[in-house]
Amino acid sequence: MIMISLNQIVKIKYKEGKKIAVLDHINLQINECEFISVVGFNQCGKSALLKIISMLDDDYYGDYQFENVQVKGLPDDQKRQFRMENVGYLYRNYNLIDYFTIRENISLPLKYLHATKSQSLEKAKYWCHRLKIGHKKNHLSRNVGPLIRIKASIAQCMVLNPKVLLVDDIMNELTGEERKVVINLLSELNNEGLTIILTSEHLNEANLFHRKIFLNEGKIFTDFPLQNGK
Predict the structure, then answer these.
(1) Per-residue model confidence (pLDDT) at position 228
(2) Which run of H or of E encompasses 117?
(3) What's the pLDDT score for residue 227?
(4) What pLDDT does residue 173 have?
(5) How far apart are CA 33 and CA 8, in angstroms?
(6) Which domains does the chain possess?
(7) Which of 65, 78, 83, 170 is least buried, going by the fewest C-beta atoms within 10 A?
(8) CB 151 within 8 A of CB 185
């Protein structure tokens, strides 16, 4: 089933008086449970694409539907609620507040849903255990390494049970082995039904996904499923 449908998406920015197409007539359909890498060099449009899919950027032309809902026409309050119910977005600088503990950061989104303290603690405890970061749960996020911060950011997204997780070029600080840990974790979540879209400049990472999309100068250059993919 199609989850995300982008039709003729154009994103424009102006630099030194010149008009630049950050995204140039993008047509893209993403099905439920896909495991997708979006690959391209810096400034190719990867992050711009994710911001539109995440519903955080309305400044574009074209049609965007999420499960047959027209996204762009939604009032701001409805869009905010719709985004919270459906989309997790892991930024490249993580989603964490430095002076909060790992557990506090993970449970933070639940405050917007008016969850009780016990509900928040229970969910945070589950994801700390699931992602093997329980030993760091009371550490301030600024005092842990990048792998723990990434895991905590994934957990922070997952406490809201999103349908799609967007991961924006997060692994530049990781070692090769730590990258594998993150990819394996994302693969596990995907196998449980979560749709995942990750942006990266690293081709080796992209080869571990079931579908690979190359962006170049705001255009989809190639889009194909990998051999042995889903």
Answers:
(1) 41
(2) helix 117-130
(3) 42
(4) 85
(5) 23
(6) 2-225 (3.40.50.300)
(7) 78
(8) yes
Q: For the chain (length 230 residues), average pLDDT per consecutive 10?
A: 96 87 94 94 88 95 96 92 94 86 93 82 93 96 95 95 94 88 95 94 76 91 62
Q: DSSP assignment, residue 140? A: B
Helix/strand number for the chain, H first, E second: 7, 10
Residues 6+ apart with CB under 8 A from 209: 35, 36, 37, 198, 226, 229
Can you give the pLDDT at residue 203?
Answer: 67
Query: What distances in angstroms separate CA 61 from CA 51, 72, 130, 143, one per listed residue?
Result: 14, 9, 40, 42
Q: Which residue has the tokens 């989309």?
A: 87
Please state whether 55 falls in left (phi above 0), alpha (psi between -120 and 50) or beta.
left
Element (DSSP H or E) covering residue 88 = strand 87-90
Contact (Cβ atoms closer than 8 angstroms) between residue 41 and residue 206: no
Three-state SS for 216?
A: strand
Amino acid at 177: E
CA 113 from centre of chain: 20
Token pair listed for 70: 């027209």
Cα torsion at 138, 170, 72, 107 (round to 10°)? Answer: -10
Neighbours of 210 (CB within 10 A): 17
- Cα–Cα distance measured from residue 211 to residue 149, given in angstroms and rounded to the nearest whole number: 26
- As a whole number of angstroms, the distance between CA 40 and CA 46 comes to 7
Enclosing H/E stretch for 222: strand 219-225
State the pLDDT at residue 230: 43
